Each structure stands twice: as structure tokens, then as C-alpha cells.
## 1
Amino acid sequence: MYHLVPILVPIACGCVLPIMIVWLIVRQKMAESQNRTQIILAAIEKNPDMDIEELMKKISPKKKLLKEKLLTKLLWGSLTVMIGFGFIGFGAWLGYVGGGGSDDPMASVIIGLILLAIGIAFLVNYGMGKKMLVKEMEAEEKMLVSQAENK
């Protein structure tokens, strides 16, 4: 029985866990959609003369602005870079001080390098997106200002 554990743990983490995460996310989105549909149907039953488009705009989730999406990438990039440096520093410290198994410092450094690469990718994506989407962000801001003035 104990010889199956090293095989089953990677299978569970690599196959079952991602499937469960996707299933939970899809289930949550379906529940949100059903709730919005029930609210609209109840509103139509109570007041058939109601403007459905306006109600849909109020109920529907707000879309993130381009600037918010870019700032989220900057945030995640900064976090993963810092955590990556932390893992690399911890691996270097563990290798210098000793202790643990002989593979522990190397595993920590490898995890740190992976996180560092992911963080750098987020930061590069932020920089490129900022350069490429300048005009779209300005147009989005003008549209928001005009909507605010109309209300």
C-alpha cells in the first residue's frame, strides 16, 4: 500500500486538482448566471413595463478597465518576483548553513527561479501592454468621463 503513495500523490495533484478547480469555477459562474436570470424574471413578473436593458446593465458584473488589468499584472509580477528572490535566498542560506537534505537547497533555488521567471513574464507583459494600449486606455477614460457627465 505504501508503495502506491508516491504514484498517487502526483496523479492527484496533476490531474484531479486542476479538474476540480475548473469544475468549481464553472459551477460558480453558472450559479451567478442563474441568479441573474431569476432576478430578471422576478422583475419582469412584478413590472412588465420595466426597461430590461438598464436592469441587465445594473445586474451584470462590471468589466475591468484596461488600466486595472495592467495594474493587476504589475501586482502579480512584483509578488512573484519577490517570492522568487525569497526562495532563491532561502536556498542559498540553506546551502551555506547546511541542514536538511542535500537536495533541499537546490529544490528551493529551482522553485525560486521558476517563480522569478513567471514574475518577469508578468512584468514584461505589463510593460508591453502599457506601451501598446496607451490609446485604448485614453479612449476608455474619455468614455468613462463622458458617461459620468451624462448622469
## 2
Amino acid sequence: MAMIIQTVDGVVSNRFDINESGLGFGRTPDNQVQIDDLAVSSQHARIYSEQDDTAKAIFMIEDLDSTNGTFVNENKITKQQLRHNDSIRVGWNVFIFIDENDQQLEQTSKIKKSWIPGVYYTKDK
């Protein structure tokens, strides 16, 4: 399942699931993510899914010729593939893209016992 979460000062304030029809950002009520901010265009951006060569769902974000642009990881974009944990900025609003199918878990560190009694350590590869 893919979603975006809206953060305000690092705290999650909203969550929006991305379904088959996609997710629209803008000031008008016909957007799934309606943003009451004059820095946001009426039809600002959209997220939609496509299939890659292996038939895996990938998520794209596209700026809809907005006045102030759409930013992914603080880079202005016109169209870009989203990756898990990407930061999206629309106007002054920040969202985080979450793709539960794309999360890469870090490998668990192995704890080793040193020759000193009671002292343990991890050795990074």
C-alpha cells in the first residue's frame, strides 16, 4: 500500500492513501488533497501509479504547470518516480511518500562478545 503523510514541524498531521485513480493536489475541492494556501495552484500536482517492465507498480508525481512548482527532496520537478521516504513539497506544505512494498530494511547487526568480560560490540561490514 502506498500513501503520503503530511507533516507539520516533523509531526504527522494527515494521511492520504493512494488508490488506482491517483491523488490530486490543489486548492480546489475536486482535489483529493485540498490545500488552502495561496502558494498552491488550483490544480497543482498529481501522483499516479504505472507498471514498470516487471509489472511492478511504481508511483509517479507530475507537476501540472503550477505557478510555484512541485519539489521532491527539494529539487523542482516536472515528472519523477517516487521512492519510499521521498519528501514532497507543494507550496509550503510538506508530505512524505510511503511505499510499504518498497521499504528496504537494514540488515540486523550481529552482536559479538569481546575478550573483556561484560563488553560486547557490533562489527559493521
